[in-house]
Structure formats: structure tokens, C-alpha cells
Amino acid sequence: MKIDMRDAFFNKLVDLARLDKRIMVLSADHSAFALKKFEEEMPERYINMGIAEQNMVGVAAGLAASGKIVFVYGISPFVSLRVLEQLTIDVAAMQLPVNVISVGAGFTYSTDGPTHQGLQDVSAVATIPGMTILNSSDPINTCAFVEMAVSSKKPHYIRIEKEKLSSFDRTSAGDDYLARGYSILESGTNKCLVITTGSISHDVLAAAREYKAISGSMPRILDLHQISPLNERYLGSEIDLSKVILTIEESYVASGLSRMIAQLCISRKWKGDLVSSGISENYIFMGASREELKAIHNLDRSGVLEFLKQNCK
Amino acid sequence: MSLETSKSGSFTELEEKARQIRVDILNSIHSAGKGHIGGAYSIVEILVSLYHGGVLKYDPSNPQWELRDRFILSKGHAGIALYAILADLGYFPKEELNFLNQGRLLGEHPDPRIPGIEVLSGSLGHGLSIGSGMALADKMARNFCKTFVLMGDGECYEGSVWEASMFAAHHKLHNLCGIVDRNGLITHGYTESINRLEPFKDKWQAFGWEVFEVDAHDLMALYDLWRVIIAKEYGAPSMVIANSIKGKGVSFMENNFNWHHGGIDDEKFAIAMSELRVSKETDL
Question: Is the pLDDT of residue B281 over 80?
């Protein structure tokens, strides 16, 4: 069953906020069906801040310094690039429990052009020491992120989707997948490790299954939900056991997941082939559906299948 | 010290405290080699009246006391002025002032490792938002804590200040008091010739604040003003435009933007010390 990821997130947040009066939500004039429920049930703990993200993060820091657990909500570029300094100085440097809910990963706002694309947010926020970046790929980990954020009382940048997604079968993922920072969606039958993140994990998994039907072999599929900090111990073991690593991301390859994985591979003196698929074009002005834009950049299911055919050994 | 019992006598004490704080600042910056002395000297009476005038509630033995008032030095470059106050109050050993920027507790800009410092500051335009969040939390909790945020006038070029100003006024944060050190100078010249701030008071009023103007070096006027502000139980946030003199207290530094930041040689140090009437052994 597919569930709207915003509903998954905010329903869980409403559940927790009913029990924990410290939880507050600040929104940069951005809404969601399930967030309305928070607003209606707990109006004193919900504030529409208007279109003023810098102030939103600063106010959140002040509230958090006074004992609140704060979630701030907005569109990816505006709650990352626009507030990079507030997130660094006001939040992360003081390790305050402020959690960014960022909606708009990749081409989510596909017709709105470069101002609204979420191609750079993760790489920008990953420069902030002490800020944990979580990227949701299904309703299960989305809900888990809410619990992680509330219980840890540390800063988080949490990407959520606005589309409906089904839950992965995490039979192969292991019980400790949340702490490990990633899920193994397919164990694999060869020495090829595919590392991906976010909703595109669904396309990657589907393409890998098609690839198996054609080739008879299945790469190991890793859905990385904790992009920063990388769990170097576990992820390092995954890298060491692989001969080929493919990264697939709906963001800029030069600064995103690919760069982070490459850095980890270098630090481990890993010898193998690392090939990346993502966005290499500077600015994408074309407005189209998310699927169309992904297809243009070979990030739809058939594009990923071709990528696997060419590089999975 | 109690001001209620002997007002005139206490003002003499406060004046002496302000003089001593200026001496401490000068010694500290001289030992560090350089520092932001001009903007530290312009806020000395503001700090002395807040911390020694019976305005702020605080406990140096318990800096995280839950019901303390909050003071944010948003113009973080004047950190040495606040350090001198906090050291004098016993938040940390006064000896630390002699090791400014020398790999110990005190750096140029305040950070929350330092007892008595609420937030990391140094990048301008952050404090009023954070202070608004703190004031909102206090208002929600219905406690009587106040939040004071001291900004520079040049800081008010930052757009985030005005984002915060709209928010605080809209939410009627009566328990929030902004203070602008209106010394009229930024690093390389006069605010009014570089990028005009006036009509400054009108701007804050238009944004919905109750605005007060005060001579930033008149301890009695500051004392009376704080009484009005801390008595507020509802309504608009308060903004104090504190008309000050950058470098106040040392003639060659006053109103001279070259003393925004820099070193002070032994000769100038001696002149400054003499102007600050350093004669007692305890001053040195």
C-alpha cells in the first residue's frame, strides 16, 4: 500500500506531540494534510512563520535553548541553502534539538525550475559538523526518523517526500538498520554494490530486478538513509567486500552522495571501479514532470537499468 | 548592590564599576595584542546597568538556572566587554581576561562554552531571532523571565534582523527587549554616509515595537528605562536605541572608526590608562 510520505511523517509527529508537550512545529508557510491535524489539535505549538526561513531557524534555536524540541518545515532549498549559517551557528554548533523537515528532494518541484530543485541541499548541509542528515525512502523509515529526532535531542536535517510510496520489504535489512544508517534491499549475487538514497531507491530496486531477469545476477542494493555522518564502520565493510560500486542519486554527482562515497573509498584505499549516476548539468531550467526530468538524466527505471547493464560486473 | 536603598551612592558605585570594566577591557586587549575596543567601550554602561543595576536575574554559581533572564550579545565582536562583566561577577576567574585569544577560555567572539554566555555570536543578525524564540518560550510558560538582545547599529543592515522584528511584534513578545548600540559607525565609516539607517526610530516603530531612546552612557537614564521595560506584562516588544559614542572613555578612540578593531601600542595604552584614571594598584 502506498502512503503519502508527509502523512506518514506528520501523523507520527502528532502521535508523539500528544505525549510530549515540548514538541513544536514552525512552518515557512508550507503545509500538508497531516500537519493541519497538528495545527488544529495543538495550535499553541504550531506557528506559521511566514516566508522568513532565517528567522524561523533562529527562533527555533531560541525555543530549543529553552527546552523545546522543534521541527521547522519548508521546501528544500529554502531550509538548507538559505539558512545554512543559521543551521550552522544557531543550531549545530550549540547542538540544539532543532529538526529540519525538508520537502522537495531532487526534482520533486519539477516544474518550478532551479529555484525549487533539491539537488544541492544535502551536499550543502553535509558541510555542517554535528548535523545528521536523514533521507527517507519509504513510510517505515520516515516514521522512524521522527522518533530518532525526538529521542536524540540533537539537530537533524530530514528529507521527506511529498509523493505516495510503498514500504520496502526489509527482511534483508537487519534489525539494526536504523542505527547502521542504511538498509540492504537485496543481498546480491555478485560483487557489485549499488548505493542509492531517497525515493529513487524504488526505481533502482525495480531496475535491479529487471536486470536480474535479463542477466541472472543481482547486485547488492543499499538504500542509504543516513547520508551524514556516514557510518564508516559498516559502510566501509560493504565497500571492502565489493569490486564495483555504483552510486545512483537524484542530485548533483559532483557534490552529493557520489563524492561522499568516493571519499570513503579513497580513505579505505579501496581498489575497484566506482561509477556514478546523477545530475551533472549545472542548471536545469526545463519544467516537466519529475519522471520526465529523471528520464532525461537517466534516473528513471529504464535509465537505471541501462546504467546497471553497462557497469554492473 | 542595592540601588533602592541609596540611589545616589549606588550610581557612584556604578560609575566606578564602568570605569573599572573599561580598564579591564583595555588590559585584556593590550595583552591580546588587538581587539574590538571601540564597540566594547560603547556598551559598557548598558552592560553595567543591566548586570549591576538590579535588572537581570542571574546566578553566577548556576549559569543555567532555569528562571534566569537571558542576555544575548548579538554584536559578538564586543565580547570582551561582556567577558569583563562576567569575570567580575565570578562566572569564571578574572585571570582569564589576561589570556584573551591566547588559546584558553576567551576568544574574540562569545561562545557557549564560556559560563554566562547564552549563544554563539559573531556573525551579525542572529541574536534577535534566537532571543525571540527564548522570549516566546517564556511567554508560553507564563513565567516572568525577560530576554535582552544587544545589537550593533551596523548589524541592522542584516535582513534577518527585520524578519525577527516582524515576528516579535506580531507575537507581542512584551518580555523581549532589543537594544541597539547606536554609535553611528561601522568598520570603515559612518552609517549615515555609507548606507543610511535613519529614520531609525521610525523604522522600529513601523515594525510594531515600543521604541525608547536613551543616552547609552547615562547610567541614571538607563536605570530608569530598564525599570519601565521590565515592568511590562503585555504588549509590544521594547526596542532601546542607545545613542552611544564608539570608543567612549578614551579621547583618541571616541567617534573614531579606526578604533573599531586593532592593536594598541604601549604609548597609547599608557595614555588611555591615564585617561581612565588608573591610579589604584588594583586596577593594574
Answer: no
**Quick one: angle between helices B7-32 and B219-230, nearest 10?**
100
- Contact between A63 and B131 using a beta-carbon 8 Å cutoff: no
Which tens digits make up the pLDDT trace of B37-65? Answer: 999 999 999 999 999 999 999 999 999 99
> In whole angstroms, what is the distance from residue A268 CA to residue A241 CA?
12
DSSP B112: T
Which residue in A52, A58, A67 is closest to B126 by CB distance? A58
Instruction: Look at the block and give the residue holding cell 525526538.
Output: A150
State the CATH architecture for B8-250+264-283.
3-Layer(aba) Sandwich (3.40)
| B158 at interface of A, judged by CB pairs closer than 8 A | no
- Which residue in this structure is represented by grid cell 549606588? B10
Domains and CATH numbers, chain A: 3-165 (3.40.50.970), 177-311 (3.40.50.920)
Nearest C-alpha neighbor of A294 from the set A227, A222, A201: A201
ipTM, two decimals, is 0.95
Residues B200-254: tens digit of each pLDDT: 999 999 999 999 999 999 999 999 999 999 999 999 999 999 999 999 999 999 9
Domain boundaries, given as residue ranges, for chain B = 8-250+264-283
Q: Does B123 lie at the interface with A, CB-CB under 8 angstroms?
A: yes
